[in-house]
Amino acid sequence: MSRRMLLFAGSSNPELADQISDQLGVALGQITVHPFANGEIYVRFLESVRGADVFLIQSTCAPVNETLMELLIMIDAAKRASAAHICVVIPHYGYARQDKKSAAREPITARLVADMLEVAGADRIITMDLHQGQIQGFFSIPVNHLTALGVLAEYFSSLGLDDLCVVSPDVGRAKVCKKLSNMLDAPLAIMHKGRPEHNMAEITSVVGNVKGKNCIVTDDMIDTAGSICAGAQALIDQGARAVWVGATHGIFSPPAYERIEAAPIQACVVTNTIPVPAHHQKGKIKVLSVAPMFKAAINNVYNDASVSDLFDPEFQF
């Protein structure tokens, strides 16, 4: 029997799924997903998946618990329907920030999610810009970890800005920001950030010369935008000419949109791993598509080709 690729999408990010489907030239499979009256989720594939290589696309974004549970049920349904291989495409991996114990009696929820995905029946994970790369080690199945750094670098290069400086929002992000600074041939600066409590941040110092620079602050995600907006103000106070913000995942929990519009930020650039409502894309927020990267990753996985080739600057998506 010849191999078959089947592509299905959950309800969390239909626009990205449609883009991936169009670029692959593979129509999205028929699936029904709906809640019962008590909130339980029902999933059924409306076509045979027996013996097929099934790719399930679902960001575990808000409402996180519902989209995660929906994904687990999709995996279980595909497994019980005798899919030959189940590859789960998770553009945004929920609970990634809970990747270690920072205090006594805390959970490591990122590991719990990994365990649940495996037990449900996932054979491979494709995801993008995990909060910490070591989350890949929580899995005993293959994980292909993509990055949107190249997409962000291409966008900022297209602006033709001079006197660039890439700024890491904290010490932990410095290594990733160094890669972006190399792509843009720009120096690197680092902010020192403290967190008095969850979803609150304060910038205590900036290491590096940002005076007169077009500063690009990049992070893996923007949630309530407290860190990014505090960082932008700190850079302006240090003499920066202008501040641009880039991130892979635009979570934008309230009051993120209002904070960004009020902050000294020229533009906030995110990708479509999480859907951003159209009416919020008319101000400072700019959304870039990562569908070409996921299309290439899915295609290479299906054809047993190298996924690491996607990180080659010469690779054409």
Q: How is this fold's topology laid out?
A:
Elements: E1 5-9, H1 14-24, E2 31-35, E3 41-45, E4 53-57, H2 64-80, E5 85-90, H3 109-120, E6 124-128, E7 143-146, H4 149-158, E8 164-168, H5 174-184, E9 188-194, E10 202-207, E11 214-222, H6 226-237, E12 242-250, H7 256-262, E13 267-271, E14 285-288, H8 291-302
Parallel strand pairs: 1-4, 4-5, 5-6, 6-7, 8-9, 8-11, 11-12, 12-13, 13-14
Antiparallel strand pairs: 2-3, 9-10
Helix pairs in contact: 1-8, 4-5
Instruction: Please report the total strand number as a whole number.
Output: 14
Q: Whole-number radius of gyration?
A: 20 Å
Spatial shape: globular
Low-confidence stretches: none
Instruction: Report strand %.
Output: 25-35%
Secondary-structure-based class equals alpha/beta
Give me the number of helical elements.
8
Measured as a percent range, the helix fraction is 25-40%
The largest sheet is:
7 strands, mixed
Give the overall pLDDT as a whole number: 94
From the N-terminal CA to the C-terminal CA, the straight-line distance is: 30 Å
Widest β-sheet, arrangement of strands: 10-9-8-11-12-13-14
Write the element-wise H/E pattern from the N-terminal end onward. Answer: EHEEEHEHEEHEHEEEHEHEEH
